[in-house]
Design a protein that fits this description.
heterodimer; A: 249 residues; mainly alpha; B: alpha+beta; three-stranded antiparallel β-sheet
């Protein structure tokens, strides 16, 4: 139970924090159509977080609800990968971040369909349909940015070099994931990495973009150690609940 | 506004109930595939449809409003073109 709870926080926090990042773009998208698209994805992710947290809260059994998990933890208690808390940057930064994440999430949910935990399998099934669309959207954009103008290619390539270092953390496994993988609750995440790489490369090849060579990886968000951007994000996310505790609307 | 705008696309949606795709509006997109995706996000968020068509607005040939008299008024005086002059036999339903 304890391991399942922690894993749910890890993937639920990925959804919530990326959802919050994308929500920042509401009303600020590059054009109206893309503004709506990104905000839709944000809402999908926050909806997924709600489902995941609701189950996590139930497993925890301490009377906390999904809102308490979403809004009332401290920075080091969030276990999202560092990739998703990175700032929106320019449009290429936003879409490359989304693309790396979407490929991982689609693979993860596909493998969670056969989870020995029926609730997790159900959450995966519901989320997978949304995630497939997110991936289609971000893939099409990566292709157009990479194989677009000189400027769009430069920005997309720079975004890849900048964000690449955070991607290995998506496949992080400690005692929690190892135990759950042995119990058939989750797949072995290390096995997902080559599938992820294959998918990413297939799109980047079409986009005429390259992966960095000999660059190391970084990130300890899964253990609650975040980048300098996280505190500001949480300040905004939690503001209303901190100022007006238990407020509802 | 940039002079380098994305082209305009007209969006047609087939609803769950209806047989035909109906025009629902327009949007901007760099190409057809993105126009479809944008149409999905802009026009089907509330389960409005099960199929989408997009067509670049520039490819549509439209009648000129200035020609509307010549085009459409002549048919106004030809009521016999409507099938209203037949006596229906008793017992026919669904007409």
């Amino acid at each position: 139970m304890e391991h399942t709870y922690k894993f749910l926080l890890r993937i639920g926090d990925d959804s919530l924090i990326l959802g919050q990042r994308l929500a920042e773009l509401c009303g600020h998208g590059p054009i109206l159509e893309e503004d709506i698209a990104l905000t839709n994805i944000s809402l999908d992710l926050i909806g997924q977080a709600t489902n995941i947290y609701t189950y996590a809260a139930q497993l925890e059994g301490k009377g906390r609800d999904a809102d308490a998990l979403a809004f009332l933890r401290l920075e080091h208690q969030y276990l999202n990968a560092i990739l998703v808390e990175q700032p929106n940057g320019n449009f290429a930064d936003t879409l490359v971040r989304q693309f790396f994440f979407d490929v991982y999430r689609k693979l993860l949910f596909e493998h969670l369909l056969t989870s020995s935990d029926a609730q997790i399998a159900a959450i995966a099934e519901k989320s997978l349909k949304e995630t497939r669309y997110h991936l289609k959207h971000s893939s099409e954009w990566v292709i157009r940015l990479g194989d677009g103008t000189e400027l769009s290619k430069e920005r997309a390539q720079f975004a890849i070099l900048d964000l690449w270092r955070y991607t290995d953390e998506l496949f992080y496994m400690d005692e929690t994931e190892i135990q759950l993988a042995n119990a058939g609750v989750i797949p072995n995440l290390k096995d997902l990495k080559p599938l992820w790489m294959e998918h990413v490369l297939s799109i980047l090849n079409i986009a005429t973009l390259k992966l960095p060579e000999n660059q190391g990886f970084f990130g300890a968000g899964r253990q609650g150690r975040h980048s300098e951007y996280m505190g500001f994000l949480l300040a905004q996310l939690q503001y209303m609940q901190r100022v007006y505790p238990n407020m509802q609307w | 506004m940039s002079t380098n705008e994305w082209p305009l696309w007209e969006v047609f949606i087939r609803s769950k109930q209806g047989l035909n795709h109906k025009h629902v509006g327009s949007l901007r997109a760099p190409d057809a595939e993105m126009a479809l995706q944008n149409a999905r996000d802009v026009y089907t968020r509330r389960s409005e449809g099960i199929s989408i068509w997009v067509v670049q607005s520039a490819l549509i040939t439209a009648s000129d409003p200035a020609d509307s008299e010549a085009y459409f008024e002549p048919s106004d005086s030809k009521v016999y073109r409507h099938p209203t002059f037949y006596d229906l036999p008793d017992g026919i339903e669904h007409m």
